[in-house]
Amino acid sequence: MLTITGITKSFGARVLFEDASLQVHRGDRIGLVGPNGAGKSTLFNLALGYDWPDEGEVRLERNATIGHLPQETAPAGDETVLQLATSIPEEAANYLGHELEPKAKQILAGLAFRERDFDRPAKAMSGGWVMRAFLARLLVQQPDLLLLDEPTNHLDLESLRWFQAYLKSYPGAILLISHDREFLNELVGSIVEIRQSQLHRYRGNYDNYLVQREANEAQLLAAYKNQQKKIEQLQEFADRFRAKASKAAQAQSKLKQIERMDKIEAPVKEGRGIKFRFPQPPRSGQRVIKLEDIHYAYDTTVVYAGMEFEAERGQRIVLVGPNGAGKSTLLKLLAGTLAVQGGSRTLGLNVKVGYYAQYRVEMLKPDRTVLEEALDTPQKISSESVRTVLGSFLFRGDDVFKSVGVLSGGEKSRLALVKLLLDPPNLLLMDEPTTHLDMASIDALIGALSQFEGTLIFISHDVYFIRQLAKHVLHVDNGKLTHYHGDYQYYLDKSATLTPVVPVPVAPPVPAKPRPPKAARQSLNHQRRELQKTVTALETEIARLEKQQQELTAELELPATYEKPARAMEVNRELTGVTEALERTVPEWEKAAAQLAELPAD
Prior knowledge:
The chain has 602 residues and is an alpha/beta fold. It is 44% helix and 19% strand. The protein has helices at 40-48, 81-85, 90-96, 100-110, 127-141, 157-168, 181-187, 206-241, 248-260, 327-335, 356-362, 370-375, 383-392, 409-422, 439-451, 463-469, 488-495, 518-556, 565-598; strands spanning 2-11, 14-24, 29-33, 55-60, 66-69, 145-149, 173-177, 190-195, 198-203, 287-298, 301-312, 316-320, 342-347, 353-355, 427-431, 455-459, 472-477, 480-484. The strands form 4 sheets. Strands 5-6-7-3-8-9 form a 6-stranded mixed β-sheet, sandwiched between helices. It has a 6-stranded mixed β-sheet with strand order 14-15-16-12-17-18. Helix 8 packs antiparallel against helix 9 (248-260).
């Protein structure tokens, strides 16, 4: 569908691509990765025809349509949200006909727009919501090739799960840039890495890519070392004997052999995370914060009525739930940036509160340099150590001498995050902290928060980030708080609240094939019966194991279990065995169910 052949692209002395090629076929799901500045957005511009290669060719299949979601869209005009979502090319609109508006409403609902939002002027909404409306328009149009640049940045967790499920059944090809590791793992079938001006393709998802790249790096390093050793030997021979008449010809031959070699470039080893011990906050009391009988409303919209919440020292809590459920309001009530309208907010002994969304705006001084601002902390930290941390959050080289006043919104957020980590409170409240961070910076943040000895309460749509840090999940919905005393996977298993998938339009029906002969039908029916027996047996076994897992987990949650240490150990062993059995059985069921689904109809 999209063919990129032997392209070279430079900006001044900076070479982004050199003789690079890529083929995107129909149905492909490709993640495009590489460090900031590697050329990901430039490759999109070349594919879209917004820019041209210095050499080589970029060709889109005839009559194929292409759609693009940039990181930042143009501001909305006077159109309503629904009008924006349905403002697609005339040809696509004619094809959809009477289905256009229902489809747009279905997609807008999946992206968490409420029905009353459909007729609101888009420009009256925040930038994040406008971005969702543009995303809805792109999905309504349904181009043959989707180019998505950080599409999850403005989505909450529930909308992201819907969007991910929608893209899994999308009929066209997808090429996407994303720093969301879990999103890439769930969606893509291959990764294209921009590295050393080339496009390197790896089969599998992001985790598969990491394993393959490490193996490739090891092989490349070994080949490079072997070649360097050979070059040294040849050079040594030439240096030793070039002055001897009897050996001069041989020495010259060795030098020519070196010249003829196809030189292997030394592999560039990426940084493996920061080596820095972040300062720790003073120890708080056991009870960190308590909200009692909280009432809060925006005008006539009641968010909380009689809400209760309490957090203890060292807890790591993620807030999840549908958009508009009150997660950010709860975080602001905890931070004290919203005053409770009824009830009480009580801080524990020696508690110092830090609210990340607040830090982005209020704590930076525009007349300072990045380095000066980062060094302005009560903690005594060397300039070298601070520059190490700044480098992990994309302030590298001379970037640290830029004025804070000229920084972009994303750069200010990253700098505020550095300051927060260099002088952390013992109650840290964070609202979408991974926005504007690349994967290396997200890893650095995870590393810092893993060291953090205080209490952490946060909201995030980055599932990988959640899985790495959250030990307790609080589901917020319609003013009700539901606690899950386990990690994110435990919450998914216990809640079983998977977001329903909005189906994409189905393709025209394929003409029926001639009915097979009787013998073939009998064989097929036998195969179908046997597979059905297998699927049914495995489903029964999975149900039994899941029930046993729930019972054992529930027993582990009872304080009485730990009054008999031997029983607690026994339950843990049993739970481990059941979990391992499920990990074996579920893939067997998936394989058998897939085989059954692939059998032709009788």
